[in-house]
Design a protein that fits this description.
alpha/beta; 4-stranded parallel beta sheet; 5 helices
């Protein structure tokens, strides 16, 4: 199954998005988070991303979803250097995570999960 990693400057934000995504993935989707820096403060950490990817990787690839700024840069850097299939989705964090988890839970492949995350950009709220 394709795994997901939520990358945010805030540990609490990453955990909250992961909680919602797991619920929408009906307990089947593997959603890990890499929020904040290694000291527990705001920031990003490639070490936390690496640990989360290892935990989320079931062999079918991992989709990264990042909030903004250095989280995106950290995700890009990790994906470029990763062994295996790791892709950063160009998607809104919450909506993309929910869409990705929902489709990942069906056993969809990496490209399909990335496409679902990225299609969430078009979901209107009004």
């Amino acid at each position: 199954m394709v795994g997901l990693v939520i990358i945010s400057h805030s540990r609490l934000l990453a955990e909250g998005v992961a909680e919602v995504a797991r619920a929408m993935g009906v307990g089947k989707a593997v959603v890990e988070c890499a929020g904040g820096d290694t000291g527990g403060g705001l920031g990003t950490s490639i070490d936390l991303v690496e640990r989360a990817v290892q935990a989320a990787d079931g062999g079918d690839g991992v989709v990264l979803l990042a909030d903004l700024g250095s989280s995106v840069l950290t995700a890009k850097m990790y994906a470029e250097d990763a062994d295996g299939e790791v892709v950063l989705a160009d998607a809104p964090l919450v909506e993309g995570a929910v869409a990705a988890a929902s489709i990942a839970a069906t056993g969809a492949g990496l490209d399909t999960v990335v496409a679902a995350a990225e299609s969430a950009r078009d979901h209107r709220k009004t």
